Amino acid sequence: MSRKGQSRPFRRSIPGLASLPRPVYGRVESLPNRALTYRHSHPWVQLSYAIAGVLEVHTDAGRFIAPPQRAVWVPAGLPHRVSSAPRTEMRSLYIDCSAVDWAPLGCRVLQVSPLLRELISAFSVLPVEYAEDGSDGRLVQVLLDQLRAAPEVDLMLPLPVDERLQDLCRRLQERPERQETLAQWSDRLGVSEKTLSRLFLRDTGLSFRAWRQRLRLLGALTPLERGERVTDVALACGYDSTSAFIAAFRQQFGCTPSEFFRP
């Protein structure tokens, strides 16, 4: 315990591997608190998948969010850090680049099908140095085939490069319920509303309103996954009513909150 009587923050360890023992290497982790790794990169691909809880991968380009049934694909060499909701059950795959030469560049969130979920689960109990020319090796090949076929899902919050927008976005991420308009932010930052609107589109590909809505809805995934009431989550995110929140959620994700977390 700290001197203030609070638990010390949990710092997730990163495997110190000089090389992978096999083309695919796996880790199973139970994270009791909010896990936060320091900024780092790997010479191999990383797939982070939570069977419970919500994972986030942070890069310079944005925040990539993976609730259950989704996973974050992090390409080799990309600086990133990982955070998670409390009590997250996590599976990590580290994959040699030569085994996934088909993979596009860039970080992305993938949909995890029931078959892919079971393959990851089965792989997690294999020995580290599994036999590549036997049934274990064939399971790994099927796993890689399913990863190649996994569809990408839009669970990413793009972050700007303009310093003025970075300050604005940081403040909104700290308090997503803030209600200031773009005109009010433009006055505060000393730029015209038109300029601020143009910068948002240039740096994030989204309007200010769309970016703030995505921030709020992505932030709602963790409390919703914990089972908090939709009404409480809606109000905490800055929505005036549950119906407005559900309508925005459906517009963003194509389903209701309860449907989103259905296995």
From TrEMBL:
Listed InterPro entries: AraC-bd, Homeodomain-like_sf, HTH_AraC, HTH_AraC-typ_CS, RmlC-like_jellyroll, RmlC_Cupin_sf, Tscrpt_reg_AraC-type_HTH
A Pfam family matched in the record: AraC_binding
Residue stretches making up the HTH araC/xylS-type domain: 166-263
Record-linked Gene3D superfamilies: Homeodomain-like (1.10.10.60), Jelly Rolls (2.60.120.10)
GO biological process: positive regulation of metabolic process
SMART domains reported for this sequence: HTH_ARAC (SM00342)
GO molecular function, one term: sequence-specific DNA binding
Alphabetical UniProt keywords: Activator, DNA-binding, Repressor, Transcription, Transcription regulation
Protein name stated in the entry: HTH-type transcriptional regulator NimR
Source species: Zestomonas carbonaria
Gene from which this protein is expressed: nimR_1
